[in-house]
Design a protein that fits this description.
homotetramer; about 350 residues; alpha/beta; about 25% strand; 7-stranded mixed sheet; about 40% helix; 6-stranded parallel sheet
Chain lengths: ~350, ~350, ~350, ~350
């Protein structure tokens, strides 16, 4: 490995471009030097040139097997993640993989075994752990300042629903959206979840019912350490990306509001008008994406434990599955039930 | 009835004194002229003199049957409420009764029948409906400005647990504490609850387990209008009385924070220190108690529907019972199950 | 003096009624038993009956000389204050007097001499010192927590201008409005002002120029302890009564925002709408008026120094005069210049 | 000019590095290709390599005269600005110059004449105009929504004083610090200043008196459009960079608070602890620096008026000079007095 970590990027969609640009612009110790994108077109090539990525290809194998590559960023569609992890691990590359690893537990376990066997580092893309706000909540809880956590609360609402076609293949609200919040819940509580209970409804767009999906949901959690939790999700917060967390503890409570577009107040006879939360994840979590990539580079370069492990990736999928069963069968579901 | 509504006060505990003082100090159209308190002592007498209540007695009957009395305020222990409602109704007095009406559904129904038969006005003491903050949330939802409600959220936490002996007889967290929030949920949603699901734990003081009670709980709600809801309760918010409500709707979200001790900010190298929520309900809901009593006086004087009815009192008890079953049996409970 | 402090009220205008009602409703240790109002009419009599004031009269002398009166509240027009203080002092009554004592320094000094000679207690009605917010700012500074004060800032804006006729006789913006802020500045800084510098303009209503008055003004202050200060005033804050104070110190800064109508937030695609400051002084300073009266009753009953002295009343008038000269002559004015 | 604007950077201190890095990382339409730094050392060379700047030199002339250079960023010490502007203009390069242009009016005028003669674009580095918060205040005022501005208020406080040696050569608080606020005042008011009045004191560090400088100051402003203004400065806000602006208008008020380190609240029995403002200008104005450079690139590329002109640079120096005289002579100073 040279002094600079050479990275190969797999996938040139929205999230791939975001990581590619962030690394080459903001992380001195790493450089994206190869890109593979099966649907490669001129726009991709132009983007790669501007981002300073010299080599582009249609074939992921060109990246996996390249001798000059130390690590890969897997930013391709979810159903390719497990395969790419296995290939990259076998090629001895360190791996950053976007969430979720896969929606099938068997495939996830295969991927994690390949990683373990190869002894490479794997980090999963739960970017919210790197947000200054949520991190402050978690660090405050972890510091012990407030005593034991009693109640973990997460509000997580997207500004607008994704296209209906996306919903059809995404695995549903629990798997594509609340999965972030399941990870956040474990992160904030410092404990595994023992049991979940879900309620949900199609309140924004009835057509989503054909996919047996919901667009609004509340899930309660019982943690192994005794704490309780609750997550609410909505696919439509017309005022912006609403991402708030709160932990009520023995001696007090820590919570975070949203980052706002600006800190203005306009006072008139009609009221006091303030700005809305930042619009969506590209705005709200921009700095978090950079911190996330930096932490991966640091883990690889300095042979540290990555801050979000393969196990974290697995546990959040278990939680999404359990919530799905709970909603469908209208009953509490113990995590042990889906983990057997 | 004279121009001034003459009121008889039943019970001279904390809440009785509060209503007595408020009415005589702040409500020109009404006057507390009689007090009955079975444990009557000198302190009660002194208080009554200062509050301008000329007649005091040990026997509630002295108040019920007094010709100069137009209405009674029932501020005695919960287990006396139903009897006093029946006696007052039979005496033709209008009735303000503190919550809950009773913990036994049969007794509540008897009381409501007596009220209906007598044609008197009955208002139940869900004071939070009169708080400027929660009322603003509800009025915003009811105005239709934000479209249909999707998600009703209530955080309700006491600053410190009551004495253990109180817990032993109170009916438990759902009946003595969350009952306020059940009423608030119905008030905010503008809909009845169809189903509840409760999780709870004894996290603050383990001794509460001997009463099969919990001190921390989260209850999810499904409303008849399709909306979802969630209430969280804690018996110990060391920073003060934490009372927040939020309704996420089709077109936006309305929420309210707490009233604070003051609006100061002290900025130092260590951080920015603001004040806490007001300490407890006597501070936070002081103005709401006055507005509540005023609304009762207005309803009686002008023969209006009282803003909180006997049915409201009954429904909140159903909800508390359903939550209790849900917690005990770890399953969803339809409201129809407890209402049969 | 009986156990209860018997108070005579002079003047039954807005502020007189406010004090009368507050004392009889909220201060157990005192009672307004007499009222004198030269323009006495039926409305005044009805009000007095409702407020529990048994004796009413047209002649202030009936109050001053009444044997059963321990103290008077002077709530009459400004030009009568000095005379009434002198008469009350000579009759041996303790005195609460609304601000300003008088606009003429000679008359003020006469009044203070009479008070001193009689050995009665005199408190001036600078009610803002009793507001929970400003008091917190001052107490934080006085505690020494933040080190020496460097910069005192006061924003003080009325929701709407008074009638033009009022302006004609009020003594102008510095004497009728900023006089509160001059007192606040001295209170917060814990120091006397040495020099003032005023700028002002007629921006809201040009007709005010005929009275050589302004409706918008900024005054800088140099304090004897070296700190600097600045006050801004506007006669028209269409969003409500805007009353903010701030002290920037060696080790940090303490500031206070306004009390709001409620703590709601309504988030939509258009923005986040919060409530405005309380509308005017009757709303914002209601609790402060009660605390103020209570402090006077306490000072008289327990023979303490009153929290706002005759000297405080005098100093604020000096400051208003100095600011007037500064504005007119467009130059700095040392306080010693008007005090000689 | 190629499609990409080629930029030469003059000066490799803190602000030079900031602009260099921002342009090469975040502005696709421009590239810093040359750097001149008279004190060039290995650290500078390493930085340039990492930032992607291929050519480095000790001699500014190497940048000025390079054929491949379209524009220069002058980030050298203040006393070189005028010379570099003149040289760059004569070489036909467009110019971005950090504030202030110079502390000597004659030298500024020479520089502006050279720019005019050469027909190149000159933009001055008043970065705060590009901050999302202040820009929102200004845009709200400029929109006319609130009617005419009456009162412009600016609080601007550094977290800690610069080294004493810096103060000795900086031109003093008005020239090196408040100059930003003078520009902000003109920007917010949409009007020129007609008259200033300054008070100031050495409250943080007495040694500053030897330079006849102050570390705390309040300056009032009269604008040509009739509005009033006030700026307060402190060299030591121990809680972070305090940068607030406010415009009180005919129909309401617009103001902005600070960007905070995060949006957390920690509630305990001791109070509610929030985060402080971002520490200093590199944190607070990071995005504004990028927007500023982008606006310059846009102005040059599309031949637009630059958003901050040479005249803006000149006017702020006039204001600093006038404030200096006002402080020294303890009197109001008309701007016409220093502009003749």
């Amino acid at each position: 490995m040279s002094n600079i970590l050479n990275i190969g990027l797999l996938g040139c969609g929205r999230i791939g471009k975001l990581h590619g640009r962030n690394i080459n612009a903001s992380i001195p110790g790493a450089k994206v030097v190869r890109l593979a994108e099966p649907m490669l077109n001129d726009a991709h090539k132009t983007w790669a040139a501007e981002a300073g990525i010299p080599a582009v290809s249609k074939d992921p194998v060109d990246v996996m097997n390249a001798k000059d590559i130390d690590a890969v960023f897997i930013c391709s569609p979810t159903d390719t993640h497990a395969d790419f992890i296995i290939q990259a691990a076998e090629a001895g590359k360190h791996i950053f993989c976007e969430k979720p690893i896969h929606t099938d537990i068997g495939r996830i376990k295969e991927a994690l075994r390949a990683v373990e066997k190869a002894g490479v580092i794997l980090q999963i893309g739960f970017v919210r752990r790197f947000d200054h706000n949520h991190k402050k909540v978690r660090d405050t809880v972890a510091s012990g300042l407030l005593g034991k956590p009693h109640l973990i609360k997460i509000s997580s609402r997207d500004p607008e629903p994704p296209p209906l076609e996306y919903t059809a293949v995404s695995g549903g609200l629990f798997m594509d959206m609340m999965i972030h919040d399941f990870d956040m819940a474990r992160y904030l509580a410092g404990s595994e979840v023992a049991e979940v209970n879900a309620v949900g409804a199609a309140l924004i767009d009835e057509r989503i019912k054909q996919y047996r999906d919901v667009d609004t949901a509340v899930v309660t959690l019982k943690f192994e350490n005794g704490a309780l939790g609750v997550i609410d999700n909505s696919r439509a917060a017309r005022y912006g990306y609403d991402q708030r967390t709160e932990v009520h503890c023995e001696k007090g409570c820590v919570q975070t509001g949203n980052d706002l577009i600006d800190m203005s107040m306009i006072s008139t006879a009609e009221g006091v008008l303030c700005e809305r939360p930042k619009w969506f994840f590209l705005d709200r979590y921009n700095d978090a994406f950079i911190a996330e990539a930096r932490s991966f580079v640091d883990a690889v370069t300095n042979r540290k434990e990555p801050p979000v492990s393969g196990k974290d990736g697995l546990m959040s999928v278990y939680l999404a599955l359990a919530a799905g069963i709970s909603l469908k069968e209208n009953r509490s579901v113990k995590l042990s039930e889906v983990m057997r």
